[in-house]
Amino acid sequence: MTGRKRFGAASLLRIDMEELDKDHVDKILAQWRRERPELDVSAMGLLGRLARVRAHVAGEQEKIFSDHGLTSASFDVLATLRRSGPPFQLSPGELLAATMVTSGTMTNRIDQLEKAGLVERLDNPEDRRGVIIALTPEGLKRIDAAAAAHVTNQQRLVAGLEPAEREALNGLLRKFLATFE
Amino acid sequence: MTGRKRFGAASLLRIDMEELDKDHVDKILAQWRRERPELDVSAMGLLGRLARVRAHVAGEQEKIFSDHGLTSASFDVLATLRRSGPPFQLSPGELLAATMVTSGTMTNRIDQLEKAGLVERLDNPEDRRGVIIALTPEGLKRIDAAAAAHVTNQQRLVAGLEPAEREALNGLLRKFLATFE
DNA sequence: CGCAATTATCTTGACGTCAAGATATCTGGA
DNA sequence: TCCAGATATCTTGACGTCAAGATAATTGCG
């Protein structure tokens, strides 16, 4: 918490009103403008807030995963298998395509989940180079419970925005994302 | 929904006419709605896009840091020292307060930067428990060059949004961030 | 003044991730 | 058929991060 009070002593002392709405990112921008006034930092506020919001959201989400004995990494894999539908089986390559990590990372994630008894590696009858990763019954129970808690928590995390704001933010992020994907 | 194939790449990656306007996140939501229709996934789209956009932005920014022999971690520390103004010195605790990492992480970051000759640890004359981290002349040159390239790159990253959209997105992220800080 | 609580920084050990490369298998063209 | 290139997955080694706790110095209470 770095937050300042919106209606604290500062406003009673009539300190510049604009200062009151400055957040952590605004302070960083003000420092850059003082030290390197020739730099155009107009994009830094948006991208800095994006990074900070994402860091907070990630931390809050990990708490929920931890309650269910999972990490964001293991949740990610189990959730991908779960939402693919019965029989809850995908190849490592398919999991890779869905999760923005490298093949070595996916091997490691599967290793950990296999040790925990949440997935198993099955022979791929169509390609001896490959395997099929399957949710175990325990893995299915685990991800079903974790996913329910996760979506409830996600609603809590966005509750500070009005429905119309969420809609607007979602639309802008969709367009922004489209510039990368 | 038509029958799915045994091996899921087709279902995960499929593009058909009805889905041309759907992005990766929409496809994930559609899968959840099919598999767990009782879950309210209304917040997942926004938070999923936030995570993916941030991951893309982080990757693009790291390329620039790498061009200057830095990582996002080392850039973060050097930039904090640089924008604090002359004499470009802060305590590890002050760096910690500015950078959202743990003390052990900060110790490690400073160790790496010291090895690289970009910062040095000075005795803190006011508190023998502590030290002062100072940019070296080489560190100053490095961060000044990297910061200039970084802000230019940031402008490129947001160029796919119209100025009014950037403004709106920035405002919504500001409000969202305020719910955490 | 003396000592317990606090503070500042560092250490340790465990993870998760990545890049680069190894291994095994498949595939298509000659 | 054969084999060179492509493909699927795993291995290795180096990092960066964190949580928990250690160490040393400072502060403030009684």
> Which stretches of chain A are low in confidence, meaning pLDDT under 50 for 5 or more residues running?
1-17
* Protein chains sharing the most extensive interface: A-B, 72 and 68 residues
CATH class of the domain at 69-178 in chain A: Mainly Alpha
Q: SSE order of chain A, as H and E?
A: HHHHHEHHEEHH
- Cα radius of gyration of chain A in angstroms: 22 Å
* Largest sheet: number of strands, sense, barrel closure of chain A: 3 strands, antiparallel
**Strand count of chain A:** 3
> What is the beta-strand fraction of chain A?
5-15%
- Kindly state the percentage of residues in helix of chain A: 55-70%
CATH superfamily of the domain at 69-178 in chain A: Winged helix-like DNA-binding domain superfamily/Winged helix DNA-binding domain
Description:
The structure is a homodimer of 181-residue chains. The first copy, chain A, has a domain at 69-178: Arc Repressor Mutant, subunit A, CATH 1.10.10. The first copy, chain A, is 63% helix and 7% strand. Chain A is built from 9 helices and 3 strands. Chain A has a 3-stranded antiparallel β-sheet with strand order 1-3-2. Chains A and B meet through helix 3, helix 4, strand 1, helix 6 and helix 8 of A and helix 1, helix 2, helix 3, helix 7 and helix 8 of B. Chain A binds a DNA duplex (30 and 30 nucleotides) through helix 6 and helix 7.
Can you summarize this structure?
Two copies of one chain form a homodimer. Chain A has helices spanning 9-12, 17-20, 24-35, 44-67, 72-83, 92-99, 103-115, 137-157, 163-178, and strands at 89-90, 119-123, 131-135.
